[in-house]
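Q: I have 129 residues here and want to know how they pack in 3D. Can you give me a structure?
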Amino acid sequence: MFVEDKPLAELGLIESRTIRGSGISVRLGEPTVTNEVIAHALALIRFHHFPSRVTVDFSELVNAGLDRFLCLSPDELRIRLKNLSQIERWQNEFSYTTVANLDSMDFSEGFIPRKTLLVLLQEGQDTWL
């Protein structure tokens, strides 16, 4: 962030505040977490944490920090992944399954970060980047 002119703060991506009496500066922001961002983050976490697995439990994704990385609550992430898996663009790449109160993700072999990065760069909004 450029401190003097604060161009990022003026775009609404980052807001700087100083907490009174403490001298601590805080930067806040609300990035737009698009479907492309979620798909790319999902591909990255699968590639780095679960490279040889086709199925991953939702709780394992949360334990690996996917929700914190995306700045989403676990419940919001669950909803977004369910909705994303129903979009035609991603149906062949992964699916979200709920069986007996156990949520899991099933991945295709072709669901890799290189492909999702291309989609993110071509179709995603740049406020998150």
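Q: Anything worth noting?
A: The two ends are 13 Å apart (CA to CA). The first strand starts at residue 15 and ends at 19.
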